[in-house]
Amino acid sequence: MAFKTGISWTDSTWNPFQGCKKVSAGCANCYMFRDKKRFGQDPEKVVRSKPATFNAPLKWKEPARVFVCSWSDFFIEGADPWRDEAWDIMRQTPHLTYQILTKRPENIPARLPADWPIKNVWLGITAENQQQLNKRMESFMDVKAAVKFVSVEPMLGLMSFRWGGWIEYPSRENGASEQYDSLRVIDWVIVGGESGPHARPMSPVWANEIKRQCQEAGVPFFMKQMSSRKPIPDFLRCRQFPA
Q1: Most C-beta atoms within 10 A of its C-beta, which of 37, 135, 214, 239?
Q2: Cβ partners under 8 Å of residue 71, min gap 6
């Protein structure tokens, strides 16, 4: 909602709507739920933000990366009435690069606009463990976008895009399963540990394994933070962006 943000992989946040529902282990300690309750609001009620917030990007003149829906999920069903208006704001502001993350990639195809892909919109999924990475990549594999990315945050265990993370992907032609290395269709990977009072631990070994896979595949890697805001080890200090 503010133009500036402390999230290191973006410049700004924009929340055209707010409110969400927890869908997996990564949601357990979500800051939005904690803050909404502190404000006396229902975090599960999906609402349209006030006009000043909804239309805010129209006033932003300088180029910037903008994280969309840090207090919701852009593809949550409850936001269906307002999503087309949000797409239109993105079209009107080509100097801004919009970064959309979702835990609901199965909702993406039916909710993309007719003129998709939009050049200044990046699309990503969040995955906190191997199970969710495999599950969400199945839905995300064929989605087109100017930049496709994955945020591994909060990272809750050892994960792989390549070995155990190879996806059994049904072939449309004959129903057989084919294996895909999911980094072949990903342009950027972010890794981060959990923050907040109940942060679950993240081993630097887990993060380094993702970094290694990205380096081998030539995919930019961005190390956001360790769990509980612990210092990032020197061997993990890498903050790359897509070209």
Answers
A1: 214
A2: 1, 15, 18, 19, 20, 32, 36
User: Which among 122, 138, 171 is the end of a domain?
Assistant: 122
Q: What is the pLDDT of residues 199-220, one digit of tens each?
A: 999 999 999 999 999 999 999 9
- Token pair recorded at residue 63: 């180029």
pTM: 0.91
Q: Which residue has the tokens 């939005």?
A: 32
Q: What share of the chain is helix, strand, coil (3-state, %, to 5)?
A: 30, 20, 50
Domains in the chain: how many in total?
2
Are 41 and 108 members of one domain?
A: yes
Identify the CA nearest to 144 among candidates 175, 171, 173, 108. 108
Residues 25 and 41 in one domain: yes
Cα 212–chain centre separation: 21
Asked whether residue 184 carries a pLDDT value surpassing 90, the answer given is no
Question: Of 116, 39, 131, 62, which Cα lies nearest the Cα of 84?
Answer: 116
How far apart, in Å, are the Cα atoms of 230 and each of 8, 88, 129, 224, 233?
A: 15, 40, 20, 11, 9
Tens digit of each residue's pLDDT (9 = 90 or more) over 3-54: 678 899 999 999 999 999 999 999 999 999 999 999 999 999 999 999 999 9
* 200 touches 151 (CB < 8 A): no
Instruction: Give the domain extent around 187.
Output: 127-243
Residues 74 and 141 in one domain: no
